[in-house]
Design a protein that fits this description.
about 375 residues, mainly alpha, about 70% helix, transmembrane, membrane
């Protein structure tokens, strides 16, 4: 059975594929994910399936796609996982210094988008691809949204995760120069509570509720945003820590990575080769400029240079969290700003998507009344 690259179709359609090809795919995914874990790559359960799915797509030349039901569910789970990280302590810190924190985060996001204009120097990159690729924060959610605004999701994902790697290298170097040591454990703040049953209920309410709301009140990126908001509200209202079970969260990452991986073709690889030099320039400008803004932020707020650097970092939340905890300096401020940046990046991506889709519809003569937004569930 052949599936379109868009991945539309029932979940059970996968079982119509050749069992031999499925076995090859599973082996490729397992090997690539294990390699990503071994080298300490950021988001290994997203990058592993992305690389494994891409290799499979290029070598086997199978026009496969992730079914929409799985892709939508994965995006909602990732959104809920992001919301679960925004705990009340971060909220308290936000209310203590709202102008400085919100202002710093907004400046970081705007600066990253401005550097994204450099990507337009390449004739192979559209405005949608440039904006989503350069947006600082929520790399997995932004990558998942790319297809629905007709951006090149392979290029978006490549730029997003290349920036994460550069950010991690810059943070590690800055920590050594400015007087802190990386803990060696660059795992993200754990998005899971203590009770499995409660965590499953939390997942059902936040991710499942986000999907339901996206069906009732659809717009591009709706499921991602609804799931994030529901997770924040639920996590703040419950008296004990809750989160997304690790296996479910990893499955969500894997579905997004695999969807992008299946989009790899010989043509997209050629495009990546052409755009990567300018993409690397954009990434370096973004990271270096954010570092400068971080030092300025430190002077204004009266915190250490390392704290300012970490707070204004355009990504790399796991490493930022690990080094902040190791340094023991302004941890609440740093984590609050990083989580707020992640949250505002999701909202910004949704606004970009809605704006681009609205412009595209007007350019095509307007949408017919009752048309559903791209992506079915608005993601």
């Amino acid at each position: 059975m052949r599936m379109s690259s868009g991945g539309r179709g029932p979940v059970w359609a996968w079982f119509g594929h050749s069992w031999r090809r499925l076995a090859i795919l599973i082996a490729a995914l397992a090997a690539c994910t294990a390699l990503m874990i071994l080298v300490g790559a950021p988001a290994p359960f997203l990058l592993g399936p992305l690389v494994g799915g891409g290799i499979f797509s290029l070598v086997v030349k199978a026009d496969w796609g992730v079914p929409d039901a799985i892709r939508h569910g994965g995006v909602a789970v990732v959104g809920a996982g992001a919301g679960a990280l925004i705990d009340p302590d971060a909220g308290v810190k936000l209310f203590e210094s709202p102008l400085a924190i919100v202002g710093g985060v907004v400046v970081t996001i705007i600066f990253s988008l401005l550097t994204g204009l450099l990507l337009l120097l390449s004739p192979h990159i559209s405005i949608a691809t440039a904006l989503l690729g350069s947006l600082a924060g929520a790399a997995s959610g932004v990558s998942a949204m790319a297809r629905d605004v007709e951006a090149d999701e392979v290029v978006v994902a490549a730029i997003q995760y290349a920036r994460v790697v550069v950010v991690i290298a810059a943070i590690t170097l800055a920590a050594a120069v400015l007087g802190a040591e990386a803990s060696g454990d660059a795992s993200a703040p754990v998005a899971a509570g203590g009770s499995l049953l409660l965590d499953l209920g939390f997942t059902l309410v936040s991710a499942g509720g986000g999907l339901v709301l996206a069906r009732l009140l659809p717009f591009t990126g709706a499921a991602l945003l609804y799931a994030t908001l529901l997770a924040v509200v639920a996590a703040w209202l419950l008296p004990i820590p809750v989160g997304i079970p690790v296996l479910i969260l990893d499955a969500g990452y894997a579905s997004i990575g695999l969807a992008v991986g299946f989009s790899f073709t010989v043509a997209t690889v050629r495009t990546l080769r052409r755009v990567f030099p300018i993409a690397l320039v954009q990434i370096v400008v973004c990271v270096a400029g954010s570092a400068g803004l971080g030092l300025l932020f430190a002077e204004v707020l009266g915190v250490s240079p390392l704290s300012g650097f970490l707070a204004m970092s355009p990504g790399g939340l796991p490493t930022v969290a690990a080094i902040a905890v190791q340094a023991g300096d302004d941890v609440a401020l740093i984590i609050a700003m990083q989580l707020l940046r992640m949250f505002l990046a999701i909202i910004t991506a949704v606004l970009i998507a809605v704006g681009i889709n609205g412009y595209s519809r007007r350019a095509r003569g307007g949408a017919v009344d009752g048309d559903a937004p791209p992506g079915g569930l608005g993601i």
